[in-house]
Design goal:
Helix content is 45%, strand content 15%. β4, α6 (144-154) and β5 form a beta-alpha-beta unit. It is α/β, with parallel strands linked by helices. α1 runs parallel beside α3. The chain has a seven-stranded parallel β-sheet.
């Protein structure tokens, strides 16, 4: 679950109360607490990390040196391995002043280098595309097809795809694009929107009108057997301390497909 404003101890407690076995970790919270403490808390609560977010920014949009960005990303991969996270979620960085071909080269070379380390540590890198309306500051990959093209250029067994339903389901031909990319998928993040066309905000799964169940059924039929995360970027959701909305969403999802 995405609970940006909760302390990590509160997140772990909530996941256990909700009957979850996995949690997606946010890197900055983990760094504040320390990797040894995070690993101990995960063990104490009987939870496994499904992912750690985020690394990337390979186009250096904020003026950072690429060398520093890669070193920081390597530390996160090491940390993910230490706490047993399956995936590290990646945002490439926005195109900025680069021409697209150069931004692509920066991302591909960085992902290949980090993919080698991820392979040594038993971790996968999961690159996430975003719609243009939400991608500012995050990524130049504005569609699943563009992300798939980049992954094919990488051609690395430990570099794959993180799919967020909110971004994917805004495409009319999402089924075709997903079928072509299914072999790259490492992680699914479920999020809904109040409309099916260019929703202006995100909401918890099955609280909106996007075809989430059709997506899940398509994934299951296509052989996806990985993890699903609830990932909703919404201030109202982030600020709530009530577990009831999360429980309703999880129960509704669990009633329609086999939980992992």
């Amino acid at each position: 679950m995405t609970t940006k404003r909760w302390a990590i101890e509160q997140e772990l407690w909530a996941c256990r109360r909700l009957g979850l076995r996995h949690i997606g970790l946010w890197r900055l919270k983990c760094e504040d607490l320390g990797e040894d403490n995070v690993a101990a808390l995960l063990c104490e609560h009987g939870l496994t990390a499904s992912s750690i977010s985020w690394i990337g920014g390979f186009t250096c949009p904020n003026g950072y040196l690429l060398r520093d960005t890669l070193e920081e990303s390597e530390e996160v991969i090491q940390f993910a391995s230490w706490v047993g996270a399956s995936n590290v979620v990646v945002a490439t960085g926005e195109q900025g002043r680069h021409i697209l071909s150069h931004a692509t080269r920066l991302a591909v070379s960085s992902l290949r280098r980090l993919g080698d380390l991820a392979g040594e540590k038993g971790v996968h890198l999961a690159v996430m595309p975003m719609t243009p309306s939400t991608a500012h500051g995050w990524t130049f990959l504005h569609s699943l097809r563009k992300c798939q093209d980049l992954l094919e250029l990488c051609d690395h067994p430990h570099v794959g795809l993180c799919l967020n339903s909110y971004h994917l389901l805004q495409k009319r031909n999402w089924r075709q694009e997903l079928t072509e990319a299914i072999d790259h998928v490492k992680l699914i993040r479920l999020c809904d929107g109040p409309t099916t066309k260019r929703p202006r905000k995100q909401c918890l799964p099955l609280d909106g009108r996007m075809p989430l169940l059709s997506l899940v059924e398509h994934l299951e039929r296509s052989g996806y057997s990985g993890l699903y995360e609830i990932d909703t970027w919404n201030d109202d959701v982030w600020q709530t301390e009530d577990l009831a909305p999360f429980q309703r969403s999880i129960d509704a999802l669990a009633s329609h497909f086999r939980p992992e």
